[in-house]
Amino acid sequence: MQKYDIIVVGAGHAGCEAAAAAANMGSKVLLITMNMLNMAQMSCNPSMGGIAKGQIVREIDALGGYSAIVTDHTMIQFRMLNRSKGPAMWSPRAQNDRVLFSVEWRNRLERTRNVDFWQDSVVDIEVKQGKISGVKTGLGLVIKCKAVILANGTFLNGLIHIGEKHFSGGRMGDGASLGLTKRLIDFGFEASRMKTGTPVRVDGRSLDFKKMEEQPGDDIPGKFSYMNTPALKKQRSCWLTYTSPEVHDILRTGFDKSPMFSGRIMGKGPRYCPSIEDKIDRFATKERHQLFIEPEGWDTVEYYVNGFSSSLPEDVQFKALRKVKGFEKARFFRPGYAIEYDYFPPLQLNFTLETRLIENLYFAGQINGTTGYEEAAAQGLMAGINANLKIRGESEFILKRSDAYIGVLIDDLITKGTEEPYRMFTSRAEYRILLRQDNADQRLTKLSFDIGLASRERLETVTEKYRKVNDFTSFLGGLSLQPAKINDLLARKNTNGIAQKQKAAAILLRPQLFLKDMMEEVEEVGNFARENGFNDEEIVEETELKIKYESYIVKEQELVDKLATLENYALSAGFDYSKLISLSHEAREKLNKVQPRTIGQASRISGVSPADISVLIVYLGR
């Protein structure tokens, strides 16, 4: 076979974004997958986004990735979560048609220049003088390249558990990837095991939805991409029901055969998405747990039982679930199961996701200990970008914690590592007022355009959007309103009237008042918006957020600027911290293992105290 610039191993969410990014930046890419029918497969729930995850999808889109566009083309429901909280917490979430999602991803990759495909497994890597030179496949082919991105998901020595049964597999219906872990260990990599799981799938025709609570989508559904993707015209509802003490008692009868409780599963599972048996064991006093019943697509009767992940024997799962309201006559497509797989602790990576041991070898996705489609896709995108830049001799592309949730994700992995499946939450981001889902394009598109990924069309779209936002903001900041113009509206909104004229922007700071209200009730505002094309939903929302939260945004940016000083204090790569006897023993050990790039990164390592940071600053002569 021909030689490639970059070989991507695995066509899950990480691998697909990696291939797309590298190819769109000009690299000749080969995407190797064990099954081309399952590209970007939604192996668990059929949804994208959610708390903090929705922000990541929008960031991927702002950078020029495909996940948001594919989501918009295949969604069957949209909801903006946390609307009752401040905008820093708003998180978009979509239900997707599982089959269409995979098909749309494959179609987009097939239409992407520079991407070739090969259906096979990778069992070995070729390394010359410490640098990657190719891969060896299960068919015995040696394919040469300049860089490799491993995005193996849960397939490395994957082992599926259902009760006392266990068998090899990367997910139900697909085989595991064997041999590669051992070769990487031979090269000096540290590997460990993790566990995840997936729930029962059921036949919707056998469910009684009248006994459940309907969970419809938003009245006016939004979308993920900043580009001109189609608006959702109709939606499918999800449904909510609950377990009960009777359900829990039945589940407990299978605990003696549970691979989790018997010790047959050695890997750690996700703390924030536990199995149903784990929930009733850890929260024994809780009488019920929520179950969200989610459709798998437009034209299928298959439903996903979100909240009922399990590895108990299938007969116990089915017997317990039939005691849930609405499931009395349920028919099942397949049981829930747990899967164990190999991962490589991410402290072995650089910020570019390149491994420290082998040059031009990158890890992305669950191989790094993360969980979730969105976290995987973000890593794939960044690995694809940086592999392209590296083989072309260009500067690396790294996002800071103040730039993006993607920056928080990678910094957490590289600085702190993880011993359990890592997932993103808004609470992990200290600058979340700046890292809102609505402004990812403003934060990231110009950065991506400068490295050759985001298109000029995308950049021009962002530029025009924020020109309108700034013009609208300036107009409202300069418009004075007399009491007679606004007091009737203020009274209807249950807020005090004004005694003398005030600027429209100042009045808009009131939490009871929205810009749409002003546009409808104040003639000057409504006319200005219509005449200038500012009545687009996105422009109105962004203008309002800018005015209402300006003081908070300014304060957070000042904090970023203040702490940025620490990020500018560079530390030498490969420095032996054991020489600095003024450091605590734990700090010397952790600093030698992590090898932080800056004082700022060193300050985020658990076990490194403020006193240790002071020692480093003194050592640097600061």
Q: What does the secondary structure layout of this molecule look like, with pairings?
A:
Blueprint: E1 4-9, H1 13-24, E2 29-33, E3 47-49, H2 53-62, H3 67-74, E4 75-81, E5 91-96, H4 98-110, E6 115-119, E7 122-128, E8 131-137, E9 142-150, E10 159-162, E11 165-168, H5 180-186, E12 192-203, E13 213-215, E14 238-242, H6 245-252, H7 259-262, H8 276-282, E15 290-295, E16 302-309, H9 314-321, E17 332-334, E18 337-343, E19 361-363, H10 373-391, H11 405-416, H12 440-450, H13 456-478, E20 480-481, H14 483-492, E21 502-503, H15 504-508, H16 515-521, H17 523-532, H18 537-548, H19 550-567, H20 585-594, H21 599-603, H22 610-619
Q: Could you characterize the architecture of this molecule?
A:
The protein is of the alpha+beta class and 622 residues long. It folds into three domains: 4-196 and 341-450, FAD/NAD(P)-binding domain, CATH 3.50.50.60; 456-554, Arc Repressor Mutant, subunit A (Orthogonal Bundle); 568-619, GidA associated domain, C-terminal subdomain (DNA polymerase, domain 1). 37% of the residues lie in helices and 18% in strands. The strands form four sheets. Strands 10, 11, 12, 13, 14, 15, 16, 17 and 18 form a nine-stranded antiparallel sheet that branches. Strands 1, 2, 6, 7, 8, 9 and 19 form a seven-stranded mixed sheet that branches. Strands 3-5-4 form a three-stranded antiparallel sheet. The longest helix has 23 residues, at 456-478. The chain starts with a strand and ends with a helix. The model has no long low-confidence stretch (mean pLDDT 94).
